Amino acid sequence: MQILSLVKDIPVLLKTYISPQIFQDIYQLLVIKGKRITKSFPIEVHVTEHCNLNCAGCSHFSCLAGEEYLEPEQFEKDFKRLAELTDRFFVIKILGGEPLLHPRITEFFEIARKYFPTTAVQLTTNGILLTKMPEEFWRSCRKNNIVVSISQYPIRLPKKEIKRIAGEHKVRLVFNGSTDEHRMCKMPLDLTGSQDIAKSHRKCAISWGCCVTLREGRIYTCCVAAHIKFFNAYFKQNLVIGEKDYVDIYAIGGNKSCGGAITSIQNGKDALIDFLEKPFPFCRYCKTSDTKFAQRWGISKKEITEWID
After folding, report:
1. DSSP H helical segments within 91-195, as ranges?
2. What average pLDDT does the structure give for the chain?
3. Which of 37, 140, 158, 267 places its Cα 20 to 30 Å from the Cα of 52?
4. Where does 102-205 show beta strands of DSSP type E?
């Protein structure tokens, strides 16, 4: 039955995930899984935690977060430190939440480009607010060579108008994912933390680097670990994040230990990739073997069953 179910889901999976982004994802897969020809990896940063769409079962837990904005000053501090460690990332992704809710969004473009002048910088948005963005936003996208990436959902978007505005400002626009209503996946959480860490990591659909996250000076392998605090707070749970679940970018670069993961500045970038390849303690909370694809999209009711079986 499981095989038949998977076969049935294949057309939806292809429709959902095959897009120009697939080539970027394949590249990341090769890098993070050990094909280290370029020694590069992607990194994403939330500039807002809340969202104006609030998808059910959001893996970033944005539908559970309150209104919260990243200060550009903190962003600059962390990016200055990242640039000291390495100037090579495959792509920097500015997202949320919904990043266009941030009143100072263009300042993040300027800062990212200041410290990473040749790195691809992408703004990931649901697109709802794009036609309402001021001229300053589009000028900054053009000036700083920002790719506007729209994550598609089964909602109505004025795509022609968005394309027209982006075209007039010579801003590159990319549509990713599908508008099919069965475009979501669900990776259930194990509240007891009883999963085999190595097995969970091995079977994880996002362990290969699609959502490496920088948060408060720490690099996490995945968005679930990076943002689990919102799940914990809302549902009064205690899925523990420990020192070995992340890399502290301010602890590396000397002789200090970083959660037991990195100890030498000379191999800082390589050590980061080493960390990203390996299982980490938080993997015990993820039932990756039970991941379900082609799940129906909907607005969150903020029920815990959206994240657990």
Report:
1. 105-115, 135-143, 159-168
2. 86
3. 140
4. 120-125, 146-151, 173-176, 184-186
From CA 208, how far away is CA 289, in angstroms rounded? Answer: 16
pLDDT, tens digit, for every residue of 27-43? 445 544 443 445 567 89
Core vs surface per residue 28-53: b (16+ CB within 10 A) or e: beebbeeeeeeebbbbbbbbbbbbeb
Instruction: Name the least confident of 16-25, 38-47, 177-186, 203-212.
Output: 16-25
Contacts of 296 (CB under 8 A, 6+ apart): 181, 182, 184
Q: How far apart are CA 156 and CA 162, in angstroms?
A: 12
**Pick from 124, 55, 78, 103: which is nearest to 298 by CA?**
55
> What confidence score (pLDDT) does residue 183 get?
86
Please give the CATH topology (third level) of the domain spanning 2-298.
Answer: TIM Barrel (3.20.20)
Residue 167: burial class (beta carbons within 10 Å; 0-12, 13-18, 19+): exposed
Q: Domain coordinates of the chain in residue numbers?
A: 2-298
Query: What residue has token string 């263009």?
Result: 106
